[in-house]
Amino acid sequence: MANAADVRSVLDLPSTRKLSVQTARKPDGISRELFSLIGPSSTTLVAQLAKPRLKQKPNLGQGSKIKWEWRPFKNSARTDSLQLRHWTKASAEPDAEYPFAKYNVQPTTFTYSQDEYTRYLDDKEWTKEETDYLMNIVREYDTRWYVIQDRYEYPGGTTRSMEDLKDRYCSVCRKLIRNRPWAGDDASKNVLMSSFNFDKDREVLRKKYVASLESRTPEQIAEEEALYMEIKRLEQNERRFKRERDDLLRTLAGIESGLPDVVEDETPLNLIISDSKRSKKKGGADPDSPATPLISAPRRPLPPKNTAYDLQHCITRTELTPLTSAATKAAHQPAYLRSFKLPFPKASVAPKVTQALAELGVSHTRLVMPTQGNVALLEGLIEAATALVETKKVVDKVEYDIQVLKNRLGMQGPATKMEETDGGMEVDEGGDADGDGEGEGEDGRAQSVVSTRSARSRKHARRSMSISSVDTSATVSTRAGTKRQRRT
Amino acid sequence: MVNYGGDEVSALVIDVGSSSVRAGYAGDDTPKAVIPTSYGYHRAPLDADSAMTDVAEGAANGNTGKIAKMYMGQFGPSVWREGMEVTNPLSDGLIHDFEPVSALMRHAVVDVMRCNISEHPILVTEPAWNTSANRERMAEIMFEEFQVPAFYIANTGVLNAFAAGKGSALVIDVGQTMASVTPIVDGFVLRKGLVYSPLPQLVHAHARHTLLSPSPLRGGRGIDLFPHQLIANKMPVEANAPPRFALREDRTKGTTDSWRAWYEAREVEEWIQSVAGVMEQGWNEQVAASRPPKQYEFPTGYNAYFASERYLVGEQLFWHSPQLIASNPSVPKTLPTLISESLRACDPELRQVLVGNVVLTGGGSLFAGFSDRLSSELARSFPHVKIHSPGNPVERRYGGWLGGSVLGSLGTFHQLWISKEEWMEHGKAIVGQRCK
């Protein structure tokens, strides 16, 4: 293989061998042939091919060996002198305490004399011998009551339930603590006493419940679950009804309904709508600023002084339609720029409205001068276009339905004609009602947002709609009817 | 050193079961020596004078004068010897003959593990229904015969729970001869909830009957259960075709009845282990028939495909036909019966705890689909069932030994050993006091 020097000699270039020999040494991880071709210049490659540096190995043993010894040890937890052997470090102390001996903890046990027994612990159900046996077995099995009950076999005694045993043991301990001189303070005594509290009747009852819970049949379990679901559902319904009733009461009677959470509108609405700059300027000097407590209160006309001021500063005031709904926070309107509130068609018909407007050469998305008049005009336009589109939709649908029914009538006998038509209509209305309900809701929102003028124009639109299609207006009334029904 | 509470004192753990004796160091994960519990022996001629008795008396404790030589371990009962009898010192999981058991333990520890038995503390296991006379006898053997420095005897139920890492558990142990259900609470057996039955023996008998009885599937014949030791040569045959083999005529005369019974049992056992299964969702004739059949070849060369009958074998563990129960009132109880009986004897509060901590163990539980079937049986009556069943067959078969290995290597356990000194001082009573 030709290396760089060969190439140079062929091309009669001066040799650079001397220089390269001086500067570059072949790094690790790169073959000799490759290095002689690329020379020392390609540093990046070298960096990549360099052997990766591994993390330094941890020095676990601190360098030195550890000597271990097979050494006998004594366990201080044992009472005898058994010596077992285990591996320990040679450096460890030969007579150190066995590390596991400390886990051998003895529980505190209560013992009593014959005198104490006759004075405090006498019980007609228990003899002293059996009580002794009980105390012993409790100590032996370290108050593991399940095991104690399993192993409890007092010769000649009656069979005792776990509650009997627990009750006797706890009462014995309580009585001993109570009647013996106590070295510590009363609080610690009470704590110890309460640790031996045992309510036998309650425990028995609880056990009985547990047992009965287990002896249920699958049918009972299924029934229980079904009942549980049902009660959950009923509770939920109840809550919803109550909430709706309260809402309704609040709406109708306002604060007189006596319900909490009735929101009083503290600032007059017209003031809020007016220019922010002006309201700031006026501040507390305005006689209108004290809140009108009730929405039903008549709205006072603005003082004439303001009218002059408005004219001077090109301020136009919009009269809000008196709101019938509660003046809640959602209905509150801060000051806003008119251009923010450009009307938009309903989302469901937006493409079609846009298309219709485009046919007229109008784009509703961008209003160059959103003056009050322009906005009102645009709104009127959109409303009209929407109504048009919706009417068209309804017409299409009705036509289609008529077509379908005609086809069906053609197949069936003329006797069933009336019925069929009725059924078809009903279905129709349902569908329309839904669509219209949505429309109404959206329009309602728009009404609260935009000026009075728009509301008026909306009314026009509504009228035109009702003229253009009987069907739709009918459905609107149906809708209202259903609503009323549900409320009551 | 004190990691995980372990402190190994080179204790040995010996677990004597019906099928095998397991021995090994505490702290290991598998026993070092596993030898069959059955052993072969030659009887000394009864009318012979004592001078004629065998030279190899050392292996057997020959004070009865009956057994002249014992054959144990790997080359024990499985090797054919003329006139060799085979027997098992355990019946229903309990040791009824201690002399061969001590010989077996010595064989496992001294000959297989090559340990000096008097140097190590020894932990021995016992079934939960062991008698106190038996455990005292065991202690006596350990201290008097083996001269061990310390000894402890622990319950296999508790040890199985420990092997599963649980203090409280419902241990379902299906061994070679006995099936038991043991409730364990805080490392103690609830004796009132302990139930056991010789169910695996019934399963074995059923399998043997299936193989031996003439069946139309097999051309109206039963299957010959000759072991390979007795077969001189054989020819390959088609499935279900009559086998073509020649017996070793020289051996037929010297074969004893006990050895024949042992090898037949072993052939049946091997067939069960390779073929038998359990239906996961309860018995269903159609599903059982739709499962793929399994082929099995016997030492005679006879081979056959076993389809639904292989599931009938495992079914015996879970369900008995009313006819069978009517015809034999003392038929061993099925596992679901045992479990519900055991739980009924426990406190109602404990039942849910136990059912959530079921430990399945024992070589008899290695039927395919066993744990699935068990969980579906339990799920019928309990909402939250959790079964711990080791997938590793060694852990499943030697769970008792494994728990002993765990227990014997704990630092806190070393205060519980019965030392030789205590044995000398208190005598047999110390065993019952210490090993609760």
Automatic annotation (TrEMBL), chain A:
It is found in: Nucleus. One of its GO terms (molecular function) is transcription corepressor activity. One of its GO terms (biological process) is chromatin remodeling. Residues 224-251 form a coiled coil. The keyword Coiled coil applies. Residues 421-441 have a biased composition (Acidic residues). One of its GO terms (cellular component) is Swr1 complex. InterPro entries: DAMP1_SANT-like, Homeodomain-like_sf, SANT/Myb, Swc4/Dmap1. Keywords: Chromatin regulator, Coiled coil, Nucleus, Transcription, Transcription regulation. Residues 274-306, 413-488 are annotated as: Disordered. Residues 126-173 form the Myb-like domain. The keyword Nucleus applies. Residues 467-480 have a biased composition (Polar residues). Pfam families: SANT_DAMP1_like (PF16282). Component of the SWR1 complex which mediates the ATP-dependent exchange of histone H2A for the H2A variant HZT1 leading to transcriptional regulation of selected genes by chromatin remodeling. Component of the NuA4 histone acetyltransferase complex which is involved in transcriptional activation of selected genes principally by acetylation of nucleosomal histone H4 and H2A. The NuA4 complex is also involved in DNA repair. Belongs to the SWC4 family. This is SWR1-complex protein 4. It comes from Mycena maculata.
TrEMBL record, chain B:
It holds the Pfam family Actin. It comes from the Eukaryota. CDD domains: ASKHA_NBD_Arp4_ACTL6-like (cd13395). PROSITE patterns: ACTINS_ACT_LIKE. Belongs to the actin family. PANTHER family: ACTIN. This is Actin-related protein Arp4p.
